[in-house]
Specification:
By secondary structure, the protein is mainly β. It has 1 helix and 4 strands, in the order ββββα. The chain has one helix at 70-83; strands at 2-9, 12-20, 46-55, 58-67.
Length: 96
């Protein structure tokens, strides 16, 4: 769950990022949407549905997101997905 807070900026208020918590267990990320524990580590596990309509005069989009920590992703979501119709993830590895 993305938490926002209202802050006063030069005599006006604005919503800014406050923290990110897991929608399953409530764990809090250390860095924005990155669940990594170390400064050089990047772990992002947002699940989202993006629905968009585009017309010549404009358009609209709706983004629905679940924020889930890596532990809940592996222990709950992945196991649930694989138990339904033998779903398998697409895994891509990169080296640089």
């Amino acid at each position: 769950m993305k938490h926002m807070k209202t802050v006063l900026i030069l005599e006006h208020t604005e919503e800014v990022f406050d923290k990110l918590t897991c929608d399953v267990c409530g764990a809090e990320s250390r860095w924005d949407e990155n669940w990594g524990n170390k400064e050089h580590e990047k772990i992002i596990t947002t699940i989202q549905l993006e629905e968009e309509e585009s017309f010549p005069h404009g358009g609209q989009a709706t983004l629905t997101q679940y924020h889930i920590c890596p532990t809940c992703f592996k222990d709950h979501l992945a196991k649930w997905m694989e138990s339904h119709r033998d779903a398998k993830p697409t895994v891509t590895n990169s080296v640089w």
